[in-house]
From TrEMBL:
Keywords: ATP-binding, Nucleotide-binding, Translocase, Transport. This is ATP-binding cassette domain-containing protein. It holds the Pfam family ABC_tran. Residues 1-216 form the ABC transporter domain.
Length: 220
């Protein structure tokens, strides 16, 4: 069980309210919400990237390992893919294995600008996996990809999660169908400041979904 405690964040106005929630081991959560509501702000807080948003993410007394796939790939452009992975601690055959796991076998000596957007995103995903994360944070991983490439990446992420059942996922998306494909739990962020308005399991049958919504949103 991962516990998240996030102290709210103001920019010129209050953006994110205080949030306290829990993520079970292996939970696959899709985070939806209106544009500009604070989804990236929440991910940054969880990742500890925003010094002005006190947040703790912990598992018992252990330090939580996080992998963060940003909206941009943020690979070092002057380093090859192999070197980008080496920076986070991968070495030797581990680099080959990581690249193979994201379908980039043979690209170890390529530079990021020699890759398509989808390939660069998969390389960044390999970098996330190198730290063997407890929780994978994905910020709109399918944005700007054509439907075929987006579908391939969705399948890849789903297979990686299956292969690492203890790894949780928190994925920001604007597409509810991503939730059906990837998630077992949905969060909906809304309000000023934003809170988790809705935390419900993804269910395959309509009756269960309606019941979940009624439970999570009593006003319905
Ligand atoms: N560094 C910053 N300085 C000032 N305002 C910021 C900063 N970062 C975010 N904001 C503001 O906080 C709000 C939430 O931004 P955030 O990027 O978290 O939203 P989002 O839900 O991820 O949006 P989108 O779905 O469009 O990516 C926005 O109004 C944004 O303008």
């Amino acid at each position: 069980m991962l516990e998240l405690r996030i102290k709210g964040r103001d920019f010129e106005r209050p953006v994110l309210g205080d949030i306290f929630t829990q993520i079970r081991r292996g939970d696959r959560i899709c985070l939806l919400g209106p544009s500009g509501i604070g989804k990236t702000t929440l991910l940054n807080a969880i990742a500890g990237l925003d010094r002005r948003t006190p947040a703790t993410a912990f598992r018992g007394r252990e330090t939580l390992r996080l992998g963060y796939l940003f909206q941009e790939h943020r690979l070092l452009p002057w380093r090859t893919l192999g070197q980008n992975l080496a920076i986070v601690g991968a070495a030797g055959t581990e680099i080959d294995r990581l690249l193979e796991s994201v379908g980039l076998t043979g690209y170890q000596h390529h530079f990021p600008d020699q890759l398509s957007l989808g390939m660069a995103r998969r390389a960044a995903l390999a970098r996330c996996l190198a730290v063997e994360p407890d929780l994978l944070l994905l910020d709109e991983p399918f944005a700007s990809l054509d439907p075929v490439r987006a579908g391939e990446l969705r399948t890849l992420i789903s297979e990686l999660l299956d292969a690492h059942p203890h790894m949780g996922m928190l994925c920001v998306t604007h597409d509810a169908s991503d939730a059906t494909a990837l998630a077992n739990r949905l969060w909906y962020l809304d309000g000023h400041p934003a809170h988790l308005q809705w935390d419900a399991p993804v269910a395959s049958d309509v009756e269960t979904i309606v019941q979940s919504l009624r439970t999570s949103m009593p006003l319905l």
